[in-house]
Specification:
heterodimer; A: mainly alpha; 2 domains; 7 helices; 81% helix; flat; B: mainly alpha
Chain lengths: 190, 187
Amino acid sequence: MLLTLFLLFAKIGLFTFGGGYAMISIIENICVEQKKWITHDEMMDVAVIAESTPGPIAINCATYVGYKQKGIVGAIVATLGVVFPSFVVIFAISMFLDNFLEITWIASAFKGIRIAVALLIIDAALKMVKQMSKKFVSIAIMVCSFIAMLLIDYFSWNFSSISMMLIAAIFSLSLFIIQNMIGKSNEIEE
Amino acid sequence: MIYLELIVGFLKVGLFSFGGAYGAISLIRDVVLDYGWLSEDSVMNMIAVSESTPGSIMVNLATYVGSSQGGFLGALLATIAVVVPAFIIILTAMVILDSFLDNKYVQAVLFGLKPCIMGIILATGISMLTKNALLPVVQETMQLKPLIVAVILSLIYFGSRKFMKKKISPIMLIVISAIVGMVAFGI
């Protein structure tokens, strides 16, 4: 059973390109439809939890399914399984990439690729912004952190994005508490 | 002590990377540049490789940065560090979670975090784009090629959605951009 868990999650890790969201559908296919390890509803729960908690979504799913099957050992085995293939692939690539980049045509290709990566990131951000709640506070926080991050980046200021996230969290929490105290219908509760 | 730095750096990434892979990309770039581990260009090369290889992008980047800074042990430690917070949070969550995520204070925190992350991701993308496509025009005596490449790639990527039924996948865009790059910057 533990071996099956490891192998199946290694398979998921090996055949999913494009990161977390692509993985969710494959995990659903294997764990819900084929193996019936968890139900569809449970899978939805994991996806929601994964969205609101930090960390790679694939890890969240693997830990959840592994734990359901075999407790804490299962959780560890499934998580290791999902990480193992990409660890091997990336480690191998990382040893050679610098040498590859000295070859002119590969360096040229990567100049193009870097621009593509920037476009992909902008696209991902715009998609999230479109789905975002359109409340004033949300938009204000989004715009402020956008401008702050750009300034930090261009002027190489020593201020990390983590500190900015902490400020946003504290601001939002204080706003919520203040609104509760004065008993005003609040912006935050959905 | 590079190993300790890697562990601390990637624990931070694992703990604060809400919003999936793209949130993590912004964070990892920030952490890596902050510690001065790699140049902006190297980070972007790694992001491209991590997007085009199987597995979670966040884990791939951790393995990659770890390996470049501390060899095999570095790769191992960075990978474990980026995974551990998610692992522990889910395990804890399974015991107390339902009540935890429904908690209105937790909701209030998430309400502030989410738009902040979106702003950070958007700024990261725009900053990367300007550094790779616009700065060469200003700095390197009117080097226009990167800007032209950026325009072509945006037309292909965003245009494909307007005029074709099917959207170009990220991996496909990376392949196309490699070809455009070779044509524009020489073989």
